[in-house]
Amino acid sequence: MGKKAIVFGATSGIGKELAKMLVKDGFQVVITGRRIENLQEIQATNPTQYIIEQHDVQEVTTSEIVFEKIVKQLGEIDLIIHSSGIGYENPELEWDKESQTLQTNILGATKIYNLAFKLFKKQGFGHLACITSIASLRGSRHAPAYFASKAYQVNYLESLYLKTKEIKGGNVYITDIRPGFVDTKMALGDGIFWMAPLTKASKQIYSAIKKKKRKVYISKRWNLIAWVLKIVPSWAIKKVM
Ligand SMILES: NC(=O)c1ccc[n+]([C@@H]2O[C@H](COP(=O)([O-])OP(=O)(O)OC[C@H]3O[C@@H](n4cnc5c(N)ncnc54)[C@H](OP(=O)(O)O)[C@@H]3O)[C@@H](O)[C@H]2O)c1
User: Fold this and answer.
1) Tens digit of pLDDT at every position of the chain (241 positions)
2) Run of H or E residues at 121
């Protein structure tokens, strides 16, 4: 039987591209997101390999129901990709924007991470690959909730990686994918530099997933920025950004 994957947040951008690559590689792929018309459009390109589930990750109780339904339908799942996410430039700290970001990127994400981890623990195998961000490394005066939510995701995923120690066999993998700027509607800010084309970034992400990497920066040149971000003091960031 062929391999099976779920991609959370596959209606556009990185998730959609990764789902396409999985289908090309013979996977049966469940794609999710809120925009049903996008899901239907994607499914129409390959009705046998795509399964669609309209779903809002903020509704964590529904996440459980949707997840159970998929597992019941497909049985064992090899790979779960979490790409759902939102972010806003929010200089005035509008509460709705901060709150929406936390509900999607923190509460919504944690529920998916939990469901995936518990399933893989039960199965004794599986791979959870999540799109976090280079934004996880520092704060930002432009998008505080987004940057903080990405730091949370990175730490939570490290915890899950550590928890794989509790699973016998060593066949559960956690991959943390940290893009810089990728050319989707999510890319925050004006005058964006080093913007990776979506197809190039997605190919690099897919390759990292296949290698079951623990963490990866996308595109490769962002390794350099990450290195700088980790050592630069806050006062210097305050001065230039
Ligand atoms: N583009 C960049 O520069 C960049 C850089 C670093 C990290 N990232 C991360 O990459 C991930 C994917 O973003 P992208 O760049 O591919 O942008 P995108 O095209 O906007 O994709 C975001 C995906 O998340 C889904 N989503 C958002 N809110 C959701 C909700 N409440 N419930 C279910 N799905 C939801 C969207 O689906 P619906 O709207 O249909 O629900 C869409 O499929 C995000 O986590 C983002 O933070 C992006």
Assistant:
1) 699 999 999 999 999 999 999 999 999 999 999 999 999 999 999 999 999 999 999 999 999 999 999 999 999 999 999 999 999 999 999 999 999 999 999 999 999 999 999 999 999 999 999 999 999 999 999 999 999 999 999 999 999 999 999 999 999 999 999 999 999 988 766 667 788 999 999 999 999 999 999 999 999 999 999 999 999 999 999 998 8
2) helix 109-123
Which residues contact residue 137 at a Cβ distance below 8 angstroms, ignoring those fewer than 6 apart? Answer: 151, 226, 229, 230
E strand or H helix that includes residue 74? helix 60-74
* Ligand 1 pocket residue status of 126, Cβ below 6 Å: no
Domain that holds residue 82: 4-240
Task: Read off the CATH number of the domain in which 43 is found.
Answer: 3.40.50.720
Q: Cα of 241 to ligand 1 centre, how many Å?
A: 24
Report field, pTM of the whole predicted structure over 0.85: yes
Rounded distance from Cα 82 to ligand 1 centre (Å): 9
For the Cβ of 187 lying below 6 angstroms from any atom of ligand 1, the answer is yes
Pocket test for ligand 1, best of 6, 16, 84 (most atoms within 8 A of CB): 84
Residue 125, Ramachandran bin (φ over 0: left; ψ between -120 and 50: alpha; else beta): beta
Residue 200 tokens read as 């190039």
- The number of folded domains in the chain is 1
